[in-house]
Design goal:
461 residues, Aspartate Aminotransferase, domain 1, Aspartate Aminotransferase, domain 2, 7-stranded mixed β-sheet, 4-stranded antiparallel β-sheet, 14 helices, lyase, PyrdxlP-dep_Trfase, pyridoxal phosphate, PyrdxlP-dep_de-COase, decarboxylase
Length: 461
């Protein structure tokens, strides 16, 4: 064995303790760490190391060169994108995922697949989905949307008498994908799937909203003259967390043939809040559902789930035909026949630990508390003359701009990031340069919301 490998193996217990201590220092100080990295990164090293330095040396080298540039994105005042963190139980589950290093592709040799099935059942209950929905873990919302739309593509073929998984997407002819305010990952998925970004048709939204106008959607469907289509509905838009009327959209299937895919990347968690549960009424009626877990479930990156009522079509799309991988059974196909990846880490373990440790009630508290923090920040910004809210705070995102000159948003965000107290991301809403503050981290408290407000008001002066 290579001497450094042999030495690290012999000292493994102590080295794992050193790694744990390294993580301890980072996580215990994250509440006061700069939220955004400052300064320039180090000059990139030329070439791969010819000779290593062992794990202890690698930890020291990382601390000296790169750790200063690690953001506080796992902390309570990082409000960019929709970024959760990692609860203690989720972190433990993720560490053990790496330590156990199970291949989650099939049920052979370990109980990994059965643990994933159990966790998926818990999540299905968490999101109010019935037993007809079956799922799988994937890397994120983009992968989840891609899987859901791939199954929708196969359903279109079924309606038109072709097998897209065998004959290719060209056998479908023109495809119509209808949505009011689709996330950008939907266009990316359509590009990957060969359906094409150009097939996405934006349907008018309700006045002053990002939610689709159901009457306009029906008009668009009627104009197809009975040709099957795909409808992508939103359970939480990215800018203002607006929700389509899922039940009303699903009811349109009584008159028009379409596959209903719901992008509930983080809005699916609204069902855990009594004040917001009505927003996801009708989610169970969807043909496929996307939910991201490294957002509001606060498990480490990367983790998401997809659910569908048509696992048979899912298997037709993702079946990996090879004798050494085995044939998928109708009742319980191995996960490698359900997602794009053959090689799958056991992402379910972090979610299993999180749900076992804190239960539905614990995660509901996170949702309610962080949504309250968004309300507090929204109220503070609304009361300040320098800011203007661009939408009501519907759940966990505050969308606002600078009252005097929205074109100064990039300069303003640079100042906020430079101060290091918080981090927010830019967007554009109805042509107006804007800012998004997205709350989903399990550590965030009303005191953090107050600190964010103070940082924003200081940056705008």
């Amino acid at each position: 064995m290579e001497p450094l490998l042999a030495a690290d193996l012999a000292a493994l217990s102590g080295l794992l303790t050193s790694t744990k201590d390294h993580a301890d220092r980072f996580l215990n100080g994250i509440g006061e760490r700069r939220v955004a990295a400052a300064g320039a990164p180090p000059v990139r090293a030329e070439g791969a190391p010819a000779r290593g330095v062992g794990l202890e040396g690698a930890l020291a080298r990382f601390a000296g060169r790169w750790e200063a540039g690690v953001s506080g994105s796992a902390g309570p005042r990082y409000l960019g994108f929709v970024t959760g963190g990692a609860t203690p139980a989720a972190l433990a589950g993720d560490w053990l995922t790496a330590a156990y290093d199970q291949n989650g592709s099939s049920g052979g040799g370990s109980w990994a697949a059965q643990l994933e099935e159990e966790t998926l059942g818990w999540l299905r209950e968490l999101f109010g989905l019935g037993e007809a929905h079956q799922g799988a873990f994937v890397s994120g919302a983009t992968a989840s949307n891609t899987v859901g739309l791939a199954i929708a593509r196969e359903w279109l073929g079924e309606r038109l008498g072709v097998r897209v998984s065998q004959q290719g997407v060209a056998a479908l002819g023109p495809v119509e994908v209808l949505s009011g305010s689709p996330h950008s990952s939907v266009g990316k998925a359509l590009s990957v799937l060969g359906i094409g970004r150009g097939s996405l048709r934006r349907v008018p939204v309700l006045p002053g909203r990002e939610a689709v106008d159901a009457a306009a959607l029906e008009e668009s469907l009627a104009a197809l003259g009975g040709r099957p289509a795909i409808v992508v509905a939103n359970a939480g838009t990215v800018n203002t967390v607006d929700f389509d009327d899922l039940a009303a959209i699903a009811a349109l299937r009584e008159r028009h043939p379409f596959w209903l895919h719901v992008d509930a990347a983080f809005g699916g968690f609204a069902g855990l809040s009594p004040a917001h549960a009505h927003l996801v009424r009708g989610l169970d009626l969807a043909d496929s559902v996307c939910v991201d877990l490294h957002k509001w479930l606060n498990v480490p990156y990367d983790s998401a789930v997809q659910f569908t009522r048509r696992r048979d079509l899912q298997t037709a799309v993702f079946h990996n035909a090879s004798p050494y991988l085995g044939e998928p059974t109708a009742a319980h196909p191995d996960f490698l026949h359900l997602t794009p990846e053959n090689s799958r880490r056991l992402r379910a373990l972090a979610a299993w630990f999180a749900l076992t440790a804190y239960g539905v009630a614990g995660h509901a508290e996170i949702v309610v508390r962080t949504a309250h923090c968004a309300e507090l920040l929204g109220a503070g910004l609304d009361a300040h003359p320098a800011f203007r809210l661009l939408a009501p705070v519907r759940l966990n995102v505050v969308c606002f701009t600078l009252a005097d000159d929205p074109s100064r948003v990039p300069e303003f965000l640079d100042a906020v990031a430079a101060a290091g107290e918080t981090y927010l991301t830019a967007t554009v809403l109805d042509g107006v340069s804007a800012v998004r503050a997205a709350f989903s981290n399990w550590r965030t408290t009303p005191e953090d919301a107050a600190r964010v407000l103070a940082a924003l008001t200081a940056a705008v002066r």
